[in-house]
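Hi R.,

Here's the chain you asked about this morning:
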Amino acid sequence: MPSAAERLRILTITHNYPRFAGDPAGAFVARIAEGVAAQGHDVRVLAPHAPGLAVDERISGVVVRRFRYAPERFERVAYTGGLHQGALRSPALAVALPAFLLAFEREVRKAVKEFRPHLIHAHWWFPAGWFARRTGRPYVITCHGSDVRLLERGNLVRRTAGSVLGRAARVTVVSEFLARDLRRLLPHAQGGITVTPMPVAVDSFIAGGSATKVIPPRILYAGNLVSSKGVDLLLTAAADLTRDGVDYQLKILGQGPEESSLRALAHRLGMDSRIEWSPFVSQARMPEEYGASTITVLPSRGQAEGLGLTLVEALLAGSAVVGTPAGGIPEVIRHEETGLLARDGDAGDLARQIKRLLTDGALRARLTRAGKEQVSRHYSPDSAVGRFLAIYDAVAHDYANR
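And here is the predicted structure, written out as tokens:
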């Protein structure tokens, strides 16, 4: 563990950080920064500005600077469905991207000069890690999933990432799945990869377990409405449940580019009366959303899910969970132990697994109880902050003594 006598200066750089109380955007980044600050270290965060935000503020002991990069109405590159997945799909965002990157690099250099950090913690290898690499300071990179998927876009991206990750003092990832994927895609940049699960507000989500379950039983999906999440499979599976005479209601909580096509699919399936559509809600309301739901489903496809924190939060709040073997989901859902896994891309099997939990109360209670115990231990903020403090201390020590 870090020496209590040494107060470290840590600069966190990220393109995603909560914009308001309860904002889920980068909430796990904030929990690490705030947890480290609570241990007496000096933590500063550099993140993009967005409309309506202050440029400088202090939040829970952390100094946060949000850099400007365009007139306010055009500051929409970050916080809009994911920089790695969404920015280049919109011509307006693509036009603003060069100004965003130039401003980001300038502000990183300025922050390093003014703050003189012992180390930098960059969340996502691009763009934060790319700019950390050019500062001359030791840096830690945490990959969250979407940045690992970037590596599948070709050799140029992999060479760029290799130069960033290869020079990092430590590389951390949020799941064993991502660690394996990173080693597969960058076989020459394997040194120092550590799995560090992101912290979850365990106590808040456990409190959500006191919410009254809605009747008829609610099946909940909470997340981005993008094709990789498999929400279309969930709608098809729900139609199967209706044909089987299963009583339920489905809530789709989220937003994204696939929303109109998903609503059209639900209409074609005759599901309009069974579905409640909701935009994103604040993080403070999510424990109650999970707590009121009988089952939370994450039907992601392929390799699209770095971990699936939605499932962690749901279990803490007392909701049973169903997922697929996509990405890191099996690290949360151990089939028949902490939840149920349906075959990837198989709406019929997804319907069968959901039906099992809806109709077998004993199975549902056993899996939910075991899942809650597992994730409570593994994703507590104290555990996560302790792991990062140990990494910070080792990196700072190595740099000071080289």
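One quick note: The chain has 15 helices and 14 strands.

Cheers,
M.
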